[in-house]
Each structure stands twice: as structure tokens, then as C-alpha cells.
Amino acid sequence: MADSEPLAAKRCDSGSSSSVSMETISTLTELEDLEKVYQQLCAEEREVEVELDRLVGQEGSIHTKMLALQRMGPNLQLIGGDASQLSGMITFTCSLAENVSRKVRQLDLAKTRLYNVIQRADDILDLKFCTDGVQTALRNEDYEQAAAHIHRYLSLDQSVIELSRQGEE
């Protein structure tokens, strides 16, 4: 087998660690081909030994890491339980925050309505003050004072006057 192509074609792809199959070796008849395969297998063996030595050298480190991971197991379970409890607390807090937010919106709406009511009451009191002032000024024949009250009446918001008329009806 002077040509190396048939040797490459007969390599084992079955997942074994050698690149040359037993079938290929058993078909070899030339000493030169056998020596090439032998050299190739020796080179592969050296590579495997180097890799094995490297892995054996890491055994202590891997063993230490495995022990550390085994010791972490209970802690990780505790952390998982704590995380679950924290998640429940966060969900509860979120629910409370939503309830508080809803109540704040309701209070804000009530405050706005109350402010509007107070503003209307103030406007109605101003309107009453103007009408009473005009009547008192006319009885006292103080026309300048009556004109001042009428001027103030005319400067009031027209919606207040309209609401006053609707209230009378």
C-alpha cells in the first residue's frame, strides 16, 4: 500500500479514539504501510497520554470544586426559598401600592370637586355681597357705592351668575 489514500479512506468514524480502524490494519500487507500505521498510532497514543496527564492533573481542582458545589446545595435551596418569599412580598407590596394609588386618585378627585364647590360658594357670596351692597347703597342714596357694587357684579364670572339664576328657578 504505497499510496496513503486508501489508508485515509479506511479511517474509523465509529467514535473510537484511534483514527485507524482494526479492519484497515488487518488488510495491510506491506511492512512499510504497517510501520506508517504504527507510527501514527504511537503519535496518537502520545497525544492521548498528554491529554490524560492534563486531566489527571486537574483532578484535585475538580474535586475541590465539586465539594464546594455540594456544600452550596443547601445554601442554594435556602436562597431559592428566600427568593420565592421575596417574590410574594413584592407581589403583595405591588397590590398595596395599586390600592393606595387608586385611593389617592379618588382623594384627588374629591379635592378637586371640593375646591370647585368652595370656589362657587365664594363666587355666590361675592354675588350676594354685591346685590346687598347695591340695595344698601341705593337706600342710602350713595350712588357711587352702588355703581362700585354693580361694577364688581359685572366683573364676576358669567357662569356664577348663570348658576345663581338656575338656583333661583
From TrEMBL:
Cellular component terms per the entry's GO annotation: Golgi transport complex
Every Conserved oligomeric Golgi complex subunit 4 N-terminal domain range: 68-162
Superkingdom assignment: Eukaryota
One protein family per Pfam: COG4_N
UniProt GO BP: Golgi organization; retrograde vesicle-mediated transport, Golgi to endoplasmic reticulum
Region (Disordered): 1-21
InterPro entries the UniProt entry points to: COG4, COG4_N
Segment forming the signal sequence: none
Protein's UniProt name: Component of oligomeric golgi complex 4
Organism: Nothobranchius korthausae
Lineage: Eukaryota, Metazoa, Chordata, Craniata, Vertebrata
Name of the coding gene: COG4
